[in-house]
Amino acid sequence: MSLPDIFALRQYLGPELKDRTISDARHSVSLTDIVQYSCLTGRSCELSGRSVLLATSGQLLSALAMIELDGVARRMLLCPPDLDWDCLQVLLEQAEIDTIVTDRPLQRCIAGKYIVIGIDLPERRTVGWKVDRATEWLMLTSGTSGLPKIVRHTLDGLAGAIIADGPARYRNATWATFYDIRRYGGLQIFLRALIGGGSMVLSEPGEAIATHVARLRTGGVTHISGTPSHWRKLLMSGAAADFSPRYVRLSGEIADQAVLDGLARAFPHASIGHAYASTEAGVGFSVDDGREGFPAHLIGPNRGGVEMKVVDGSLRIRSKRTARAYVGADAPPLTDADGYVDTGDIVELRGERYHFVGRRGGIINIGGLKVHPEEVEAVINRHASVQMSRARSRRSPITGAIVVADVVLADGTDRERHETIRKEILSQCKDCLMVWKVPAVIRFVERLDVTAAGKLARTDA
Amino acid sequence: MSVKSKIFSAMKQIAEEQKVTLPPLEDDLPLNETGFDSLAFAILVARLEDELGIDPFTVAEDAAFPSTLGEFVRAYENVPA
Fold first, then answer.
1. Which CATH architecture does the domain made up of B3-77 adopt?
2. How far, in Å, CA of A157 to CA of A282, rounded?
């Protein structure tokens, strides 16, 4: 294969674009001449054609390694920060990993089995990589229970939606995301920054929201993405006041009207879009009209390389942007016989628009009547004093299950208003939902957990 | 407040929410004449569990569901909290 046939990340890092950087809370690295430097230490010349695990403590080093290894390594497994080593060892076998790139000390039993390459800020001249292959990008699914699945992507597929948008659209943008870039949603933003010729400000785990926003402002962030849970947290923190991005993007969870309206009020000068994407199905589409759900005409044959259909209520997607396959000896097929990925996301047609109602696995059964927790949450979240909510199933000796809701109120909500708010929420639910979907009990809680992937935690639901 | 009055108060609250008109609450009132459907009873049992800390119908394996309001109240009174 000759070089121009290979689509590699470094092609987007030419010296002609000045003042491009990628930064975290401690370091800022220039992207302008990054391809002339190496972040790898030790026997890094052995990396060509290897199956590499990227296991760095922070996102910045992973970002630099992705740039350096794409087109060089056979495959790269991106390791999100919250994965434990026991879990990882199984995944390494499945992914046939032979090399680990890490800045962390490894247990000797692990180190002995693999080539271990160190990684640090790029202060050495590069050995001069030969870019001669389309590297496989391996990512982990963000499911909350059990061992994650490994999915295999190509850069071509990962960047499909970015190329389709026209990368030049975002020239000079400085991107940020509340996600970790080693997960699908975050990686999309990292690739948008790189391929679109922009810069990027990375998130830091555990960073206070006000500190994070201050860093976004200082870094001149213009384009930013996160899950609705991330955005609700920001909106209710009061930290959004001095921040004025041009583009605000939501993905990863259902963007309900309340969060879209909240963002439109908080960022009157921004265009606000919500995207549908998943690790397996890739980027399906994005919607920029500020309304929840998506236009019904998106379902049907080939629109910009993406075909979508609804079967048994769930959204199915076929495109070059979906993952290629699950990886591992006993890996199940990723698509059906026709090449469609079943997303497991249930949609409902209301008028000219499809609305997401929840996950197939999350349905609560109340004496034979079904409810998706997300549809209840969407109604509760419309109340002005509600920061976020979680509807869940509670066992009932009478109907098998009932719906109950845990609600986080906005900071500073007067305790004396709790009963009034409870009544208002209930009456809102009664107006909009069938009677069995109205929460039997509403509990006010201090906080609701959000997973490392930025989604509302439903593990104990 | 006694267990009985807590139960009655929760029932009145649910009746109001569900737009149900409760008949006078007497011990011998059959539960199927309260106007409550199974969902309303499910809500009642869940709320009482939160308020009283007990769910007599889940605790005992052989719990027979009561047929009158008086039996329903006694199911709560007889379970040590």
1. Orthogonal Bundle (1.10)
2. 8
